[in-house]
Structure formats: structure tokens, C-alpha cells
Write a structure and sequence with these properties.
The protein is mainly alpha-helical and about 325 residues long. It contains 14 helices and 2 strands, in the order H-H-H-H-H-H-H-H-H-H-H-E-E-H-H-H. It has a two-stranded antiparallel sheet with strand order 1-2. Strand 1 and strand 2 form a beta hairpin. Helix 3 packs antiparallel against helix 5, helix 7 runs antiparallel to helix 8 and helix 7 packs antiparallel against helix 11. The longest helix has 29 residues. The relative contact order is 0.10. The structure holds fe (ii) ion (2 copies).
């Protein structure tokens, strides 16, 4: 049956009257640019696609805590440590909102989590690169959280209600993340020659992977079109990437740092900056598990999950006890 749905064959032959009415309602909501809510009928492909996108997004937030958490104990001052801790904690929160949003589509959180732990789900390739110096905290905040914002602001209008609403709060926190990254780089860039060199080196390493966060070129991004028809994605990968490049060129100048791309130059005719080819082979290879830190990141996540088992058991035992007590009270009441 599922194969029929996806082949675009005559739907009236396979859909029940309820499904046909549901599909008509779904189509109307999408054409009005309104919102689909968890209890609404939705096509199986929409549910599947959203579940994949929202859960991958959640996984990225959670795995994304690692490169920065790694620097909390080495932050150069108490102030920096407090800010970095708050930032990493925000990312945990983003993961939690997003797992909650994904669960409303009908897949339980433990199943989504298993998909990650068993390597069946992807997360953003950027987090498979190491954070080598303190300046990387600046470059990650400025470029990685910056790219996340460029990607996520349009997602605040995503047709799936719980996803769009989670995104509103996440974007507010991401702007703070980007500002703190920019400020770290600004201070380093205006510090000693060694500090400036460290800032430049971090930007040199993070620039291309940050541009790749928008995903493959449009010509090579088969899911994008459908996602745009469903009002989930609002701009193509290349459009968002261009918007981001145009934004960071000016910011890099203000920082007194350069971007490591000899082809970067203003194109008067297009009204945008041209930029050089990105290494998409490297991107595919990192996604496929061969980045510098893939193994380490997954190992760390599995260990953290195992070490957290007692918390889950305690929470489940407490929930069972509370439920039993509530049932007993109800019995007495009756
Ligand atoms: Fe985040
Ligand atoms: Fe962030």
C-alpha cells in the first residue's frame, strides 16, 4: 500500500473516504500557508519527512554540545566559563524541545534516540570536526550558530506547528550564541599577535564546514523541492548559503579577520558575493562517518546514555509510584 501512495498513483483507489477528506484538508491548510497540528490528518510521507528532519535536528543539538563542553574546564576566565556553560546548556534544551516536537508525530523519544545510538540517524556534519583551541569557541559561535540561525529563522514559519514554535525560542537563543562567539573572536582579534593568529586559524578551519551546514547544492538536493511544497523549507540550500556568505563577509571585516576563500568577491551584477567551490566529497565522507571525530562523538554519546540509565530508571519508578498513588486515591474517592 505504502508503495502506491508514494508512486502518485490514483489515490482514490487506495485511500479511504476519511483519508481523502484528510488529504483535502491538508492540501487546503498548506495552500493557505496555515499550520498542521499533531492531531490533524497528514500524508504518511509528510509525517515521515518531518520526523526525520526534526529528530535529526534534535540529534545535532545534542551531539553539538560535545565540541564546546570539551572546553568548559579550560575556559580562560570565570566569566567565559559561565557563558559557555549556559550556551551548552541551551543546546541541551534545544534538543529537548525538538525531541518533544518530533514525538508529536508519533515516534517515541527512546526510538528516536536508538536511531542515533545505533547509527541509523544522521546529525549535522559540522560536529564531527574537532575544537582545537579556545578561539574555536568563538568561531563555532559566530559561524556555526550563525549558519544555524540563517537556516532556522525561516523554519519558524514551518507548516508543522510544534516544529515552527520550537524554532522561535531556539532562534532567540541562537542569536545570543552567535553574539558571544563574535565577541570572543573580536577580543582575540584585538589582542596579542598570537591571539589574533589563533582567531584567524579557527575561522580558517570552521568556514567551509559552516557553509556546508546548509546542505548540498540545490542541483543535488532531491528532498528540498518536496519540503518547499509542504511549506517546511522556505528557501533552497543555495539561497540560504548565499544569504549567510553575504552576511559574514561584512562581519569578518569588522572583526579584522579574513575568510579563507580566494574566490570570495562582490558581484555587482548579482548583488551578492561570489564564493568558491566547496569540497562536497569531503562533506559526503564526513556524513558517511569518516570525519575526524565521528567515532569519538558517537562513543561519547553512547557512554553518556549508559551513564544516565539510573536517572531514567529512577524517573520511571517515580512516575509509576505517582501513578499508582493517584489510582489508589481515585479508588478511595469512588
Ligand atoms: Fe542550538
Ligand atoms: Fe547554538
Amino acid at each position: 500500500m505504502a508503495a502506491h501512495h508514494e508512486s502518485g498513483a490514483d489515490l482514490s483507489a487506495v485511500l479511504s473516504p476519511e483519508d481523502l477528506a484528510g488529504q483535502a484538508n491538508f492540501d487546503r491548510i498548506i495552500s493557505e500557508d496555515s499550520r498542521i497540528e499533531p492531531r490533524d490528518w497528514m500524508p504518511a510521507a509528510y509525517r515521515k519527512s518531518l520526523t526525520r528532519q526534526v529528530s535529526q535536528h534534535a540529534h545535532s543539538e545534542i551531539i553539538g554540545m560535545q565540541p564546546e563542553a570539551n572546553w568548559i574546564t579550560r575556559a580562560p576566565s570565570l566569566k567565559r566559563k559561565a557563558i559557555l556553560m549556559a550556551k551548552v546548556q541551551d543546546e541541551a534544551g534545544h534538543g529537548l524541545y525538538l525531541y518533544s516536537a518530533a514525538e508529536t508525530l508519533g515516534t517515541r523519544r527512546d526510538e528516536l534516540n536508538n536511531q542515533l545510538l545505533e547509527g541509523r540517524a544522521k546529525y549535522s556534519s559540522i560536529f564531527n570536526y574537532p575544537a582545537r583551541t579556545w578561539a574555536d569557541m568563538g568561531a563555532i559561535g559566530w559561524l556555526v550558530d550563525g549558519a544555524a540561525i540563517a537556516n532556522q529563522v525561516p523554519l519558524c514559519r514551518a507548516s508543522y506547528g510544534p516544529y515552527g514554535r520550537a524554532m522561535v525560542r531556539i532562534c532567540k537563543e541562537e542569536s545570543f550564541h552567535q553574539r558571544q562567539g563574535w565577541e570572543i573572536l573580536y577580543e582575540l582579534s584585538n589582542g596579542t599577535p598570537e591571539q589574533k593568529k589563533m582567531a584567524q586559524d579557527a575561522v580558517n578551519r570552521m568556514y567551509a564546514p559552516a557553509l556546508q551546514m546548509f546542505g548540498p547544492p540545490d542541483s543535488d538536493s532531491p528532498h528540498s523541492q518536496q519540503s518547499m511544497k509542504w511549506n517546511v523549507k522556505r528557501f533552497s540550500n543555495d539561497e540560504l548559503r548565499q544569504r549567510f556568505v553575504d552576511m559574514i563577509v561584512v562581519q569578518a571585516e569588522a572583526l579584522g579577520l579574513t575568510l579563507p576563500d580566494p574566490d570570495l568577491k562582490w558581484n555587482e551584477e548579482r548583488g551578492h558575493y561570489d564564493y568558491g567551490q566547496l569540497d562536497w566529497e569531503e562533506f559526503s565522507s564526513v556524513i558517511a562517518g569518516n570525519g575526524p571525530c565521528n567515532t569519538q562523538r558517537m562513543q561519547r554519546r553512547r557512554t553518556a546514555h549508559e551513564e544516565g540509565a539510573w536517572v531514567r530508571e529512577a524517573a520511571a519508578a517515580y512516575a509509576a509510584k505517582t501513578a499508582a498513588a493517584a489510582a489508589a486515591t481515585e479508588l478511595i474517592g469512588a
